[in-house]
Amino acid sequence: MADYRQNGSKGYLLGIVLVAVIGGLLFGYDTAVISGAEQGLQSFFRSASDFQYSDALHGFTTSSALIGCIIGAFVSGIIAARFGRKKSLFLAGILFFVSALGSYHPEFLFFQKGVASLPLLIAFNIYRIIGGIGVGIASALCPMYIAEVAPASKRGALVSWNQFAIIFGQLVVYFVNYLIIRSHASDPAVQEWTTQIGWRAMFVSESIPAGIFTLLILLIPETPRYLVLNGQDEKALEILTKVNGESKAREILGQIKETAVEKTEKLLSYGWIVIFVGIMLSVFQQAIGINAVLYFAPRIFESMGLGDPMMYTVFMGIINITFTLLAIFTVEKLGRKPLLISGSILMAIGAFGVAFSNILEEPAIVPVISILVYSAAFMFSWGPICWVYLSELFPNTIRSQATAIAVAFQWIFNFIVSSTFVPMYNYSHFLAYAIYGTICIVAAVFVWSLVPETKGKTLEDMTVLWKNKTKHRK
């Protein structure tokens, strides 16, 4: 007990962070499950007799969850400020669970199972949007939750674990989808099975981690920052003591109380530049095109003439995991800016490698390696580091509002990229990747010129930093 009072409990901190990052795993799982299910889903709805399931409708259905993500991100700030970070994450878990079951059986109560129709397509997309709302809430609040409980010296690495969980969730669902398809690979009627049942099995598999996350959220505490903002200083001190030790906890509590005026300060109290930087970090994370690769990986590898594209997708997921770990173990040593800039440059090289391999007719190994370089570079830079920045960039007083706006822009551009990739890719492989490569270069210049380094700073230090910048501009 004396040691816990003096130094805090690493086990306690690790436990609550692990629960929070399951939200990141569900974020990755929910957004990537469509990559394996979309072809079976397309075949199913093409059998409808009351409407024609066009490529445009399929593009919308594939991306419909992103509409929910935008909604969830926008409302996350409101519900986080009103109901707290913990209750908001619990709501996200419920939405994940409902979406998994509803996407598996969209016919529930109203439609005949196995008969495709336009009303059934609408019901399916509603369930996907419900899950997307959960993703939008979790994407904003999981990093925020971790940042608000973690010590400054460990915050970057711990928030980066959320990105690891996102990529791990994608890898898990790639593997689950692969196993589901392989389980009936020798069946002569495998195509019919995939059209009727396979895609359903992929969606319902998410209900297991969703249920676990929802129950575990009940066991973790509210964040100290939120508790102070709502006048619960004693509870905040208790949690801070468990994490940091009593002496450090009282020091942090004092810093939080000095800046805890979230309910009275306006969004632009620290000027427009802090909001602009947060929004543009989110925009660049998506505009560089990574989700066009992650969402359509099997289709891309298939277009390169590779056998068993799902296997290559799983392999890409393993590489992504490896390079996300690189970020986790270097972010507190190298800093945020160097990782973002170097990652942007390597992504540009990978994107241009894919672009030029298409017009120079290089062997398939060239675009494959280029895609893997592009993806790996994202995983040690923009993938985790953008979330680190969004969790620590904004002052305490406007964090929930500013994070919600920035994350909403992230999902808006995610939707734009994912919905435009297929037509742009079909029109010109070179054009698609040349555009992404150019944006990567612009992103590197933006980070170098406008984004501050936050390594080693407390969340309260950021309040002082932006307040000073506001004074200088005046």
Structural account:
This protein is mainly alpha-helical and 474 residues long. The protein contains 21 helices and no strands. Helix content is 81%, strand content 0%. The mean pLDDT is 82. The protein has helices at 2-7, 10-45, 55-83, 85-104, 118-149, 152-182, 190-204, 207-217, 224-229, 233-244, 246-259, 272-287, 290-295, 297-303, 309-334, 336-360, 365-379, 382-392, 399-427, 429-450, 459-473.
Please give a handful of descriptors for the protein shown.
474 residues, mainly alpha, 21 helices, 81% helix, globular
Helix and strand topology:
Elements: H1 2-7, H2 10-45, H3 55-83, H4 85-104, H5 118-149, H6 152-182, H7 190-204, H8 207-217, H9 224-229, H10 233-244, H11 246-259, H12 272-287, H13 290-295, H14 297-303, H15 309-334, H16 336-360, H17 365-379, H18 382-392, H19 399-427, H20 429-450, H21 459-473
Helix pairs in contact: 2-3, 2-4, 2-5, 2-6, 2-7, 2-8, 3-4, 3-5, 3-19, 4-5, 4-7, 4-8, 5-6, 5-18, 5-19, 6-7, 6-15, 6-18, 10-11, 12-18, 12-19, 12-20, 14-15, 15-16, 15-17, 16-17, 16-18, 16-20, 19-20
Give a nutshell description of this structure:
This protein is mostly helical and 474 residues long. It is built from 21 helices and no strands.
